[in-house]
Amino acid sequence: MADMLDAALRHLEALVSFDTRNPPRQIGTDGIFDYLRAQLPGFRLDLTDHGDGAVSLLAVRGTPQRVFNVHLDTVPASADWSADPLQLRVTQDRAIGLGACDIKGAAAGLLAAAAVTRGDAAFLFTTDEEANDARCIAAFLAQDHGFVEAIVAEPTGCHAVLAHRGISSVLLKFKGEAGHASGANALQANALHQAMRWGANALALVEAEAAACFDGLTGLRFNIGRVEGGIKANVIAPSAEVRFGFRPLPSHDLDALHARFAACAAPGALERYEETFRGPSLPAGDTAMAEARRLATRDLADALGLPIGNAVDFWTEASLFSQAGLTAFVYGPGDIAQAHCADEWVALDQLERYTASIIRMIGD
Length: 364
Description:
There is one protein chain. By secondary structure, this protein is an alpha+beta fold. 32% of the residues lie in helices and 23% in strands. It has helices at residues 2-17, 32-38, 100-115, 135-141, 186-189, 191-208, 254-262, 287-303, 318-323, 348-362, and strands spanning 44-51, 54-61, 66-71, 89-90, 94-96, 121-126, 149-152, 167-175, 213-214, 217-218, 221-229, 239-247, 270-279, 327-330, 345-347. A six-stranded mixed β-sheet has the order 1-2-6-3-7-14. Helix 1 (2-17) packs across helix 3. The longest helix is centred in the middle third of the chain and has 18 residues, at 191-208. The radius of gyration is 23 Å and the shape is globular.
């Protein structure tokens, strides 16, 4: 077990040292991918540059039906790091480094497992997850590789997560009519006023969904992230822009929610309603299909001997595999509370446990 952990830590030290921050999305086909290819003798390797820093490597040995997916890109490092984020530090109980938790620790575990097994295996490494631009997964799913199962690595404390929320990001543009703020028409002509009225109605809509539930998740998550517009205090704002996002349950109808959010604006106030990103819930599909898929993933996790965790509020690309018809769940070392923070870390016992489970799943 100690040798296995040492091997995973050696790989993690190397993986953390490669700068794969996203943004700025300056990731090429060399660097970290040269390292990965060198560690996977006996695998058929398919390296693809999808543009804009999105690179994928599909490594296949034998004829597997299950693919393990892990993203290699990280968020930028904040100024609050206490040491070089690209240099792994190992203490008595944790490994600290940019991406160690989210989710290069899992990539290190896959490499360590590949070296001591001979069984059929498939690994898909990608670099665009942190950009909300899933072109790597989309390109992979557009081809028929023959896989029927997908295990997507994200920090889940080494529990199989069968369900999570979807995600949708939206851009709104409100139109008004410029004029002097002393005019009686300012209340209605001001685009910022219309945006605020929309916000109040949208908040009421979200509060009305508090009782909705699916597999332990309740309510609708919602956030207004940015509001811009206007010129100055004595000028009626001729335009305003709002960016908001919401995270539905698998049982929510995304298109129906969009129609309801659009209807929160006064007639004629909205100039533009544009969904800028959509990620389905896990499991994907309508309520009946989502529940059937959840039961299938539960059976798979049980068959693999993995403990099943609670549904989570954060989004993952496992939902894209589910939407494509694969039996998919989320499983990886680390805690989401450590992801994206200064001095992020993964517990050594979880890294060891994850690596051991991959070895068991691949086997001989």
